[in-house]
Amino acid sequence: MRSVRRIGGAEPDRGSFDIPRDPVRILLFLLTLATISRVPQHFPAIAALRPALLLALGAVAAAWFTPRSLAFKNLSSAWQPKVILGLTVAACLSVPLGISMGGSARYFLDEYAKVLIFAFLVMVAIRGPRDLLFFVWAYVISAGILSWFSLLVFDIKDPGTGYAQRLDELYTYDSNDVGLVLVVAIPLTLLTLQTSGTKGKLLSSFILLGIGGALARGGSRGAFLSLVIVGLVFLFVASQVSLAKRLGALAAVMFALALAAPQGYWQQMQTITNVSEDFNWREDYGRMAIWTRGLGYMWSHPFFGLGIGNFERAEGTLSEVADRAQLGGEVRWTSPHNSFLEAGSELGIPGLVLFATLVFGTIVGTVRLRQRLPRSWLAGGVEERIIYLSSLYFPISMIGFAVAGSFVSFAFQDLVYLLAAYVTGLYAVAVPKLSLLNGRSGQRRSGHAIASRSRSSARKSLAASRSLGPPL
After folding, report:
1. More confident site: 49 or 79
2. Per-residue b/e over 344-360, b at no fewer than 16 CB within 10 Å?
3. Is the model more confident about 267 or about 361?
């Protein structure tokens, strides 16, 4: 533990990383590691035990037996839980009304239900700023594990595009998925960097360098584009952080990226500006053709969609390219490669609206929350710094998801729901503290007003007594 002198009446800094003593939060921390880093899949004996499922069941059981350790009021402190509940309803309705009830039901129960349970448990497990930072650390450490596995364990191979080699054999991730996870992690790592002691700063810096190197080996153009946008937002919008720190953080990431970039990486990135020559624009299974077909699915199933988890089935059975199966042509059951299109095509237009609201509404809402917070909290106690800096970095992470998520299918994966859970926890701990601060300010203003009126009344009484002259 470290301590600092009291600043401006703030509570003493007892250290920014406190490990909770209860099993719910410990299990959720470990579940985040298993879910985001996918590290158990590297060890077949551990993977066979399905550790993520065991941790999730353990967290649910611990929550059931220790309900007093949870803050259920958090679910009403922000609007994100309501939007996620709306997505849940839309997903449930899409099951019987989509193109394959069995396929959707299986996906909902096997995949989406676990995502929802995980997100809601994290929401109610955040009792204060230190709990919030504890769960952010879980994501950051997960990104660190994934980064260094990408640098030291995973192989890179030529994907056959004629450009750079890229990561291959990543278990259930591909290189684009890894890029999304890591770009989202950059602002969160900056948060832990600025709210930690010496050891935490060193670990965060080490992870930040690993992220830069892993992004290079991933070779994802979507991740690179997201990195550029996140970097520009951080550089030009995060004025609360000194320019030297902003430039230093970006320079560290770019240095690691340049150092680890495989041959052909920069030529691959240059194709971003010449998309018309890219296979994604010309081939039937390029992203443009897939997105066009996806819009067609959404317009043909506008209210309830294809059914959650049914996009690939539609590609293999309903699309015009599926007719090639009758002629012996190639038919692929492809994913939508766009999180927003995935939500719209599988849940219908209502699902698209809800998902876009969750992403972009969270960005706008968190920025508005930061505008209400006193800037003096940057120099306050550790909890005030956690709240203020979280309100700065969470929307940047969500911007990273909005960009990189437009090139991968993550509408029903953990990442965006975990970010929404963090923001819900931020609202839950920030708003009461802000209300208390405003209440104290109001009391001081009221006290000053009463004192002023008392002094004015005394002066008037004295003047009146003098005007009456001496007593008879």
Report:
1. 79
2. bbbbbbbbbbbbbbbbe
3. 361
Domain coverage including residue 400: 23-440
With beta carbons less than 8 A apart as the criterion, state whether 223 and 185 touch. Answer: no
The answer to whether the beta carbons of residues 388 and 133 sit under 8 Å apart is: no
What long-range pairs does 432-439 form, CB within 8 A, spacing at least 24? 433/383, 433/384, 433/387, 434/372, 434/373, 437/374
The answer to whether 365 and 423 have CB atoms below 8 angstroms apart is yes
Q: Are 345 and 337 in contact (CB under 8 A)?
A: no
Domain presence at residue 12: no
Residue 157 parent element (H or E)? strand 155-157
Closest by CA position to 366, among listed 400, 342, 393, 337: 393
Which tokens in the block code for residue 378? Answer: 């940057």
Q: 360 near 431, Cβ under 8 Å? A: no
| pLDDT (average), residues 1-23 | 54
State residue 277's pLDDT score.
67
CA-to-CA distance for 211 and 179, rounded, in angstroms? 9
- The token pair at 371 is 């505008």
Written as six digits, the tokens of 273 are 């500006």
* Residue 378, H or E segment: none
Q: End-to-end alpha-carbon separation of the chain, Å?
A: 75
Tell me what the mean pLDDT of segment 77-90 comes to.
97
Please tell me the total count of domains within the chain: 1
Identify the H or E element spanning 155: strand 155-157
Query: Alpha helices of 42-172 — where are they, by DSSP H?
Result: 44-47, 51-65, 80-97, 101-107, 113-125, 129-152
Q: Is residue 461 part of a domain?
A: no
Q: Give the integer Cα–Cα distance in Å for 288 and 340.
A: 14
Return phi, psi of residue 83, to 5°. -65, -40
Q: Which two tokens stand for residue 311?
A: 């996009």
pTM summary value: 0.89
Whole-number Å distance between alpha carbons of 182 and 416? 13
Tokens, residue 375 = 């800037």
